[in-house]
Recover the amino acids of this structure.
């Protein structure tokens, strides 16, 4: 019965399913679309298919009205996202990514909340060359987007745990195991030989009903926000050895304003698996979602809704049937926070790791600091890695002691601060891209967050809270790309200058926040926060985080389950 559900049924399934089925395993008409000189865009059906190849068509929303007035088509360009399991790139790869940004995109590199590089503003005529350039550096963009398993995240910092290298290897293995097998990518972008349509052993012709995301975390750090992922693996260490993982499933952030059938959800912990079971577990969670996910209504198609529809026990028994064995009971673990640790750290081999605060992951030169140029100069003398954190920051990793002073000199030459001058609130803040490139943005995020944090910092200083790390997350819409529903203060765009304000998430990323005030502007947001911050300053318990305090002080109810989010 399960497999029957994956068969395309035109009477029931959404149009996207039809596009996938008719695409000849993701080929569609992408090649002719790229060659069409009449327009800067690709054909309608290809808009969906190019996502599987790591590409989104966009247009500059700042220019949209002006172009319309001039009767010009929107200024189409493309955003490309690389697949970078665990966020790790060598210095050489970093230089190549930066070169491509200078030559073919808007001149900036964007680090994402899922440890990937993004290029914005690539014109159609440069798409193939840019993708070929990414491949030449031994990275790729396969399955960076689309209805498949996407970039697999893992803790980025090697010096924090002995088992880090092993867990990072697992992120690569899972990513490879769940990659689509179609040769379309090689044919279209790398001029590979045309081969007969390849079967997709895991996905089948219709791939997954929706995007699918996987992360691995090594306690006590939850910087990957494991509970926001469809599938998660929490590393379990015994006597200094990695013995397996607790498996989580059903996390997700996306929702739509005013539609209570959609909601963010924290993943459930399903049980424990040993190392030899990891790939089987990953594959079969994907297969259960493939067969039971909703293919009629895309906004209800993520695994979180499949699990709530089947019930957690129903889902688990289906998974166990697919696996042919049961997961063992989950083992105990503890998380302390979901942010990054900034600055210099030395590992037991004497090498240094430097975590830099990068505002919203945007690597660009400005009047004040030459971040883009400075990082390339550092990459030229450093033969370690550049690691992207899940909080859009950058870790220059495995710096040899003998070049540490040179790196410091370059940081100072290019005015790159390591975050020591930023307040804890800014260091714990995230914003999604939003305007001008995101077609779904309703309000600003990346471009507005710095100003908002200035105001919030003033308010916090007024109540002597300047040393308190409150985790603030802002997005331009409720899709949740900066995981705003896990922010102790979450701001989600409703309209230009207007946000919904959410409060009450935990500082460790295992409890959602809840709507506190709707559709309010900056002044109203600060007015709403001021009495709470005052109270927090006066009556918080020792080490009590703001997200926990607003619940204890009865400002907002705790959300224990996605289904309570709107209650
Ligand atoms: Fe996202 C769609 C940017 C992480 C949930 N996301 C988009 C698009 C592609 C808009 C679109 O579909 O046209 C955005 C492109 C903006 C641009 O100009 O770059 C976009 N998402 C991003 C990034 C770049 C935000 C960032 O500031 O870093 C992140 C890229 C991650 C990556 O490297 O793969 C990004 N997106 C996320 C996350 C966070 C995460 O995964 O940890 C989420 C919430 C978790 C989740 O998936 O539930 C997220 N993005 C969405 C959704 C809502 C999905 C849903 O279930 O409803 C959409 C819209 C959609 O899929 O229809 C979306
Ligand atoms: Fe765009 Fe919304 Fe994602 Fe922000 S949260 S990048 S506005 S889709």
């Amino acid at each position: 019965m399960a497999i029957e559900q994956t068969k395309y049924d035109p009477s029931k399934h959404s149009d996207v399913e039809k596009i996938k089925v008719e695409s000849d395993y993701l080929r569609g008409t992408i090649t002719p679309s790229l060659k069409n000189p009449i327009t800067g865009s690709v054909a309608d059906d290809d808009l969906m298919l190019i996502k599987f190849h790591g590409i989104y068509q966009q247009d500059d929303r700042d220019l949209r009205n002006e172009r319309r007035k001039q009767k010009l088509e929107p200024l189409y360009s493309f955003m490309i996202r690389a697949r970078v399991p665990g966020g790790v790139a060598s210095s050489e790869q970093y230089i190549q990514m930066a070169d491509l940004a200078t030559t073919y995109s808007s001149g900036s590199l964007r680090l994402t909340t899922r440890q990937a590089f993004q290029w914005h503003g690539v014109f159609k005529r440069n798409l193939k060359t840019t993708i070929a350039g990414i491949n030449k550096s031994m990275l790729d963009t396969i399955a960076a987007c689309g209805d498949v398993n996407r970039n697999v995240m893992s803790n980025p910092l090697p010096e924090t745990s002995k088992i880090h290298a092993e867990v990072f290897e697992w992120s690569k293995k899972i990513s490879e195991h769940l990659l689509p097998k179609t040769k379309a990518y090689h044919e279209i972008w790398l001029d590979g030989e045309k081969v007969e349509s390849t079967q997709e052993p895991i996905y089948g012709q219709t791939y997954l009903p929706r995007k699918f995301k996987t992360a691995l975390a090594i306690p006590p750090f939850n910087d990957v926000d494991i509970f926001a992922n469809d599938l998660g693996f929490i590393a379990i260490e015994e006597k200094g050895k990695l013995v397996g993982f607790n498996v989580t499933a059903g996390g997700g952030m996306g929702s739509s304003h005013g539609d209570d059938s959609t909601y963010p959800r924290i993943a459930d912990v399903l049980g424990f698996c040993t190392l030899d079971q990891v790939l089987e577990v990953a594959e079969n969670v994907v297969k259960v979602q493939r067969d039971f996910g909703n293919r009629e209504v895309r906004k209800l198609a993520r695994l979180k809704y499949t699990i709530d529809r089947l019930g957690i026990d129903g889902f688990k028994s289906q998974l166990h049937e697919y696996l042919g064995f049961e997961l063992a009971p989950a083992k105990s673990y503890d998380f302390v926070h979901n942010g990054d640790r900034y600055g210099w750290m030395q590992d037991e081999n004497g090498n240094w790791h430097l975590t830099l605060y990068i505002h919203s992951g945007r690597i660009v030169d400005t009047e004040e600091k030459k971040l883009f140029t400075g990082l390339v100069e550092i990459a030229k003398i450093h033969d370690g890695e550049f690691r992207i954190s899940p909080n859009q920051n950058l870790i220059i990793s495995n710096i040899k002691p003998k070049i540490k002073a040179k790196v410091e000199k370059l940081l100072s030459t290019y005015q790159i601060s390591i975050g020591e001058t930023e307040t804890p609130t800014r260091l714990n803040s995230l914003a999604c891209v939003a305007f001008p490139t995101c077609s779904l943005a309703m309000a600003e995020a990346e471009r507005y967050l710095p100003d908002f944090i200035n105001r919030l910092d003033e308010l916090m200083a007024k109540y002597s809270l300047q040393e308190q790390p409150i985790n603030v997350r802002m997005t331009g819409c409720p899709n949740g790309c900066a995981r705003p529903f896990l922010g102790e203060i979450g701001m989600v765009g409703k309209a230009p200058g207007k946000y919904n304000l959410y409060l009450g998430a935990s500082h460790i990323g295992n409890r959602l926040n809840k709507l506190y005030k709707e559709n309010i502007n900056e002044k109203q947001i600060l007015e709403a926060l001021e009495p709470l911050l005052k109270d927090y300053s006066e009556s918080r318990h020792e080490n009590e985080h703001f997200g926990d305090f607003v619940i204890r002080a009865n400002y907002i109810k705790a959300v224990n389950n996605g289904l309570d989010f709107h209650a």
User: Anything to note?
Assistant: Residues 428 and 471 are 5 Å apart (CA to CA). The domain at 424-564 is CATH 3.30.413.10 (Sulfite Reductase Hemoprotein; domain 1). DSSP finds 18 helices and 20 strands in the chain.
